[in-house]
Amino acid sequence: MALINKLDADCTATDKTLTVLTAGVFPANWSFAALIKAEKIWVTNVSGVTLTCVRGYQGTTAAAYSSGEVITVQVDEQYIRDMVAYIDTLIASVSAHKDTHDPNDGSDALDTANAAEISAVVAAGTGTSHSLSRADHVHAINHGIADNHLVTVDDADAADNQAAIFTANGIEGVNVGIASGNMVKIDAADVADDEYARFTATGLESRTKGEVATDLKDQFPQAITDNHVITADAADIADDEYARFTANGLESRTAAEVLMNLMAGTTVLSTGSKIIFDKDMSTDGYYAGLCCNGVAGATLAFGDSVYYAVADSRWELTDADAVATSFGMLGICVLAAANDGDATRILLVGQVCADTAFPTFTVGAPVYLSSTAGDLTSTMPTKATNRCVRVVGQAWPTADDLWFNPDNEWLEYA
Question: Residue 323: which domain range?
Answer without folding.
Answer: 287-412
